[in-house]
Prior knowledge:
Chain A has 313 residues and is α/β, with parallel strands linked by helices.
Amino acid sequence: MTTAADILTADAYDNPYALSHLDALEAEAVHIFREVAGEFERPVILFSGGKDSIVMLHLALKAFWPAPVPFSLLHVDTGHNFPEVLAYRDRTVAEHGLRLHVASVQDFIDSGRLRERPDGLRNPLQTVPLLDGIESNRFDAVFGGGRRDEEKARAKERVFSLRDEFGAWDPRRQRPELWSLYNGRHSPGEHVRVFPLSNWTELDVWQYIERENIELPEIYYAHEREVFQRNGMWLTAGEWGGPKENETTQRRLVRYRTVGDMSCTGAVDSEAATVADVITEVAASRLTERGATRADDKMSEAAMEDRKREGYF
Amino acid sequence: MSTELHHTPPALETGSATALLRFATAGSVDDGKSTLVGRLLHDSKSILTDQLEAVTHASLKRGQEAPDLALLTDGLRAEREQGITIDVAYRYFATARRRFILADTPGHVQYTRNMVTGASTAELAVVLVDARNGVVQQTRRHAAVAALLRVPHVVLAVNKMDLVDYAEPVFAAIAAEFSAYAASLGVPDVTAIPISALAGDNVVEPSAHMDWYGGPTLLEHLETVPVGGDPSDEPARFPVQYVIRPQGGEHRDYRGYAGQLASGVLRAGDPVTVLPSGLTTTVAGIDVLGKQTDIAWAPQSVTVRLTDDIDVSRGDLIAAGAAPQSTQDVVATVSHLHERPLRVGDKVLLKHTTRTVRAIVKDIPYRIDIDSLDRVAQPESLQVNDIGQVVLRTSEPLALDPYAVNRRTGSFLLIDQADGTTLTAGMAGEAF
Ligand SMILES: Nc1nc2c(ncn2[C@@H]2O[C@H](COP(=O)(O)OP(=O)(O)O)[C@@H](O)[C@H]2O)c(=O)[nH]1
């Protein structure tokens, strides 16, 4: 048995081969990207222009350097995008010579294949265009930026998550993951969702953004914006359908912790103008990202679990 | 809920060598595992307001005044009640000194496979016992799984010390019994800590009730236990994942082998053997994700350039130092994971590092009773949660190290050829 004295004198940090936690997480994510490149025919990265998808792309660029990233990008476009995020997306695609596919919720509404919800929320409408985009392009591996720390339903999600030909997630068919052996076998028509950031927390993502000097859409940092309050969140006034008559707008200093559909992504009051400010804020913050900013997750505790079964991100 | 963590928040340590510790917890139902995990998360301030609100709300609904920390890990519990997939849930927390990834597995008897899954990536396992019950059959099973999976560090957390009047003799007897058993299994390092997960004694803060204990609290131990070992002690093992060939532009002549070092240190100039071909060459250079260097070590993901233009592809192993034997005859200890049993004659796929080959089950010499460690010779099959030895013949040679020497190059999966189901986890060589 080890005695206390042994432990207190053993200096874990003397090891010249120690890796920082960011190095370890990066090495793991890169390993996952390369496994997919080695074993799948048509992988794609879900790219929303949000920080998690930006970090995924950054990791993929590093994983295959000096060769180009052997995957294309897929953006599920709700039609209610922050213009800054769309501009960022297009800049990034051009800069790295990537191929971008867009699955558009608006197109689906216009062609009658989807109907606008009474509450105007479009995040729940993303599933159909997403699955259609995967199916029509025959993507067999789909990288998502989901992290297990985001909420309870994700804590047991696999790194390789098998989806049937309807895109659905069946808990009974999920495979145990041991060591770093990822089993990506699937039948034709099925695909695998891959989550290289599974083991990252929000703070890790921000620390990595700082360390790697990764540019983000400017709405992640504090800025003045015309907002109004709905369901306890600050929403941006705009063409998508707000504010309603009884809602009044005001100018506030805010930033976004996630960027999604404008109709259900709330801004938070913040003075954090730099990455370092954001890290301080995140470390001190007492709300999860989802709790703070996603109207659709507030709808029901089981909301995420339900949507995942249907094939959501 | 009184204890607060005195460490600085993790953000202040940005850029420092805060290492990552992956650990697993195991305990029988009601030993207090959920309470312990909840307390670690809570006292290290990893619980966020909205999560705590949800728990407080749920606790009130059940008529409890204080938030029941066990509810923080409620996801698994709900599943247990509904009887659907129970498996491993991962939790994250950090202190100023380390980042932690906790593989939380349900304690129920029949879930050996989940414990095996959680332990496979763990550097440390916390085995929980109830001080009133001491070492029970489940405890021995947890110790056996930790030993089998070669988890380098084991912590025995003797919980509910408050219910035995914080009495040293109770703790000492349990610690002695467990340590002896673990030693007989070949567990190299056991640390026993007396705790009360409910009251918080020795979890994050030192206990005011156990002056007789001079050791670290559980969190202190987690923060300081050496992680990762010394890669320079091990021969380098580099399974090739992907060949990087830009074939155009300024890097048109670049050819690099992408992978993650499974063990050891690799330097420019090192002579290496490529397996299974057996060809030898030297390392021309190493690129760490876009930066040229001349040294890399496990578990870094890097790209290796070789001096000679030899045939190397995904599934090959670049090895320095004593190279493993390439073999088509594999003797391994396995943990069977699926309801579909494994039988002699079964044809399966075998996934080892980055290589997948066909294999046939030639023999199942014995099953191990995980409680008594008795061997049952020639079982008809291995059922879900069974541990046993199998002999396999593969379609192509594998560069396999004994699992006892290398957890990454000594492990493999057996996969159903027809539908891709993961059937079995394998570890080359003898158990224990
Ligand atoms: N007195 C006392 N009770 C405890 C302690 N730890 C847990 N418990 C109680 O033991 C019961 C089972 O705990 P729980 O964490 O749900 O156990 P699990 O099944 O191992 O997750 C609960 O009623 C806890 O409040 C402890 O250190 N002391």
